[in-house]
């Protein structure tokens, strides 16, 4: 964006449906070529050895270690929590991850397993991943997860409503979910792979911020494409501009498809260059991932030992 919206423009945007539509469609159009070229350019930055180890540790500390499968069990979640607490048991100086993310019926299991660690428990809710149920059921899902002890909620927006131009409906639903969260932080999943255009990603990002989302998240991980660098650039621009106007810090979470250390470092470079170093903290940036952590741990050992350790030396999920 060439210029951040003013405080009065933000206040006017949420007056009614017409004002919200006018604001969202008044956002500058995205220069696709420029966006993709900048994302590609930042992705070629080289990171030297000491900085690379620091980047790996930072990335580990930002991981939302995730299992969201129909076959998930209490035992699998407890094992995941053990890995979250001690990602590399042979190297106790390895940072803990930021959170463990599970379905709401397994949130209580994760809460018990992580008690006293400072690791957050995130629960997907609102009929993840499709979100195709009545709002009352979505809110009950959120309330169940919060009652089980989840302190972060990852909700999905109604993409059908958004793509049909029913922005007010999406806005009100996010507000209702935010209220149901109580003290829990809310991550709003845009499912950018279904939004079709960069302009829609920009609009959905601002819509989620206006409605009170603490984080904006790219994807459920169930739709392709999931997280991409250009889309994450747009979302980082949105939270940066939100801060410039309101003074409030909101976070970004790319999720899905980020599987290796090289990719993770590209995202950290984007955070630093697009939003700013202030966002290089788990409080404002997360990776939604399952397999990423294993590669980060292998590359961490390579940096420390001076040779490639391979997957046999790291506990694989």
Describe this structure in words.
The protein has an eight-stranded parallel beta sheet with strand order 7-6-5-4-3-2-1-8. Helix 4 (49-61) crosses helix 12 (261-275), helix 7 (135-147) runs parallel beside helix 9 (167-181) and helix 11 (229-246) runs parallel beside helix 12. It contains 13 helices and eight strands. With 317 residues, the chain is an alpha/beta fold.
Strand content: 5-15%
Give the CATH topology.
TIM Barrel
Category by helix and strand content? alpha/beta
* Main sheet properties: 8 strands, parallel
Q: Classify the helix fraction into a percent range.
A: 40-55%
Q: Strand-and-helix sequence, N→C?
A: HHHHEHEHEHEHHEHEHEHEH
Please tally the β strands and state the result.
Answer: 8
Organism: Saccharopolyspora oryzae
InterPro entries: Aldolase_TIM, DeoC, DeoC/FbaB/LacD_aldolase
Keywords: Lyase, Schiff base
Catalytic activity: 2-deoxy-D-ribose 5-phosphate = D-glyceraldehyde 3-phosphate + acetaldehyde
Observed structural traits:
13 helices, 49% helix, 317 residues
Give me the secondary-structure topology.
Elements: H1 7-13, H2 17-26, H3 32-42, H4 49-61, E1 63-66, H5 74-85, E2 99-103, H6 107-114, E3 120-124, H7 135-147, E4 152-156, H8 159-163, H9 167-181, E5 185-189, H10 198-210, E6 215-217, H11 229-246, E7 251-253, H12 261-275, E8 287-289, H13 292-305
Parallel strand pairs: 1-2, 1-8, 2-3, 3-4, 4-5, 5-6, 6-7
Helix pairs in contact: 1-2, 3-11, 4-12, 4-13, 5-6, 7-9, 10-11, 11-12
């Amino acid at each position: 964006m060439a210029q951040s919206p003013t405080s009065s423009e933000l206040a006017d945007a949420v007056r009614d449906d017409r004002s919200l539509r006018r604001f969202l469609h008044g956002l500058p159009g995205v220069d696709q070529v420029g966006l993709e070229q900048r994302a590609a350019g930042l992705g070629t930055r080289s990171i030297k050895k000491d900085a690379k180890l620091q980047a790996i540790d930072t990335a580990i500390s930002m991981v939302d270690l995730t299992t969201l499968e129909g076959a998930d069990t209490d035992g699998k979640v407890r094992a995941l929590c053990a890995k979250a607490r001690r990602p590399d048991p042979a190297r106790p100086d390895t940072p803990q991850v930021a959170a463990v993310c599970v379905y709401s019926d397994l949130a209580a299991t994760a809460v018990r397993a992580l008690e006293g660690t400072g690791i957050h428990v995130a629960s997907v809710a609102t009929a993840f991943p499709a979100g195709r149920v009545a709002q009352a059921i979505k809110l009950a899902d959120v309330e169940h997860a919060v009652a089980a002890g989840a302190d972060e909620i990852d909700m999905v927006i109604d993409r059908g409503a958004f793509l049909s131009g029913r922005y007010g409906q999406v806005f009100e639903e996010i507000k209702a979910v935010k209220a149901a969260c109580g003290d829990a932080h809310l991550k709003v999943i845009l499912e950018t792979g279904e939004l079709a255009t960069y302009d829609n990603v920009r609009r959905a990002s601002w819509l989620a911020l206006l409605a009170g989302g603490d984080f904006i998240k790219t994807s459920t991980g169930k739709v392709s494409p999931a997280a991409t660098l250009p889309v994450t650039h747009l979302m980082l621009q949105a939270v940066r501009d939100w801060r410039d106007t309101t003074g409030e810090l909101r976070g970004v979470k790319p999720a899905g498809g980020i599987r290796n250390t090289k990719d993770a470092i590209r995202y950290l470079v984007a955070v630093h260059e697009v939003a700013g170093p202030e966002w290089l903290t788990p409080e404002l940036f997360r990776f939604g991932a399952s397999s990423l952590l294993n590669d980060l741990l292998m590359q961490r050992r390579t940096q420390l030992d001076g040779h490639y350790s391979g997957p046999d030396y790291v506990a694989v999920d």
